[in-house]
UniProtKB/TrEMBL annotation:
<feature type="domain" description="FAD dependent oxidoreductase">
    <location>
        <begin position="32"/>
        <end position="382"/>
    </location>
</feature>
<protein>
    <submittedName>
        <fullName>Gamma-glutamylputrescine oxidase</fullName>
    </submittedName>
</protein>
<dbReference type="GO" id="GO:0016491">
    <property type="term" value="F:oxidoreductase activity"/>
</dbReference>
<dbReference type="InterPro" id="IPR006076">
    <property type="entry name" value="FAD-dep_OxRdtase"/>
</dbReference>
<keyword id="KW-0560">Oxidoreductase</keyword>
<dbReference type="InterPro" id="IPR036188">
    <property type="entry name" value="FAD/NAD-bd_sf"/>
</dbReference>
<dbReference type="Pfam" id="PF01266">
    <property type="entry name" value="DAO"/>
</dbReference>
<dbReference type="GO" id="GO:0005737">
    <property type="term" value="C:cytoplasm"/>
</dbReference>
Amino acid sequence: MGPFEHPQNSYYAATANPFGERPALAGAVTADVCVVGGGFTGLSAALNLAERGYKVVLLEQARIAWGASGRNGGQVNLGLRKGPEDLIAAFGQERARALFGMAEESRRIVTERIARHGIKCDFKPGTLHAASKARDCGWMQDEIDCLERQFGYRGARYLDRAAVRQELGSDIFHAGVLDSGGGHLHPLNYALGLAAAAEAAGVQICEQSRVTRIEKGTLNRVETSGGAVSAKYVVLACNAYLGDLEPRIAGKIMPIANFIIATEPLSEAEAREVIARDVCVADTKFVVSYWRLSADRRLLFGGGERYSTQPPADIKEFVKPYMLRVYPQLAGKRIDFGWGGMLAITVSRLPHVGRMDNVFYAHGYSGQGVAVTGIIGQLIAEAVAGTAERFDLFAAIRHQTFPGGTLLRHPLLVAAMLWYAMRDRL
């Protein structure tokens, strides 16, 4: 299964809702759609397809949400990784508005599913984007203006340095954007809730069922060591764990490592001091730090760069200095959890979505996967059903292959990322 095989010290795993292991695929079965991958993309697609009446089998190589979907920062952020002005510059106003509109629809999908299926995942509203550099202040104000004028979005407001200090209890930020939409949640419990909803809709979930081969044809055959699924349609939802399963698209994404720590529970006063409104936070560095409070008032902090598929010897000590740069007052707090995993980025930082005959794929969310996967799963179901206009808005985004292909992309990315990381420090 590769690096980070077991998130042994994950706060999410320690506080997961009950979800018993599902049996592995055994023997030959047939379905309308075979979904490969049990994370947010696969679960969202499977749920949407089953709700439309399709017979769906979902194959997960380990456990549901074993990858990034069960380990991430849990942030449901605004828009896509490209800001509104960049979207307009790249795609024109009409298409940019459509892409942004679907990203906003995706955030609504998250909250609606939580409510409709009674998913207990500690959702809290609100996000804050904190300016790490003085020059960020100008574009942040321009971005809010663009959101209002071009996209009709009025949920974001600008915070000056004093206001950010009041919100975050830290002196290092120059400004910020406080967004009333979106929010944060327990990602593993959200994924487990989606899995339960998918099963209730008729999806057959098979865990410990790593796909070894896909034989493509009028009826695709998806093989594991224990059996095979014959299905007209296949959905590849593997993200950073795609490997060599489909070489034609593997070079469009880059798996990178990310790490999070969780402190001991803070007092109510301490929690209000670090994040006054209980929103989730991310800064503007190229190597982003991000943090939020858990339901039991722990500070969950993600930060630090490592361009290797192997975790550091001590994740807690690796991430802690990044937390203390923001909150030196937490130096005496115990770090109870530290874990890591792999996510996938694209060159453009926009998701790579498409179709090869009757094989659909979506991956490379570049840190925006908690929210965006909601709409992507819906678009895949629409396309399978024969209505692909909205799917094609994402599928038409041109994506570069990482230089060097799958063999050399990692060392070349390391060189580039180290350069930008050095710029962050300077």
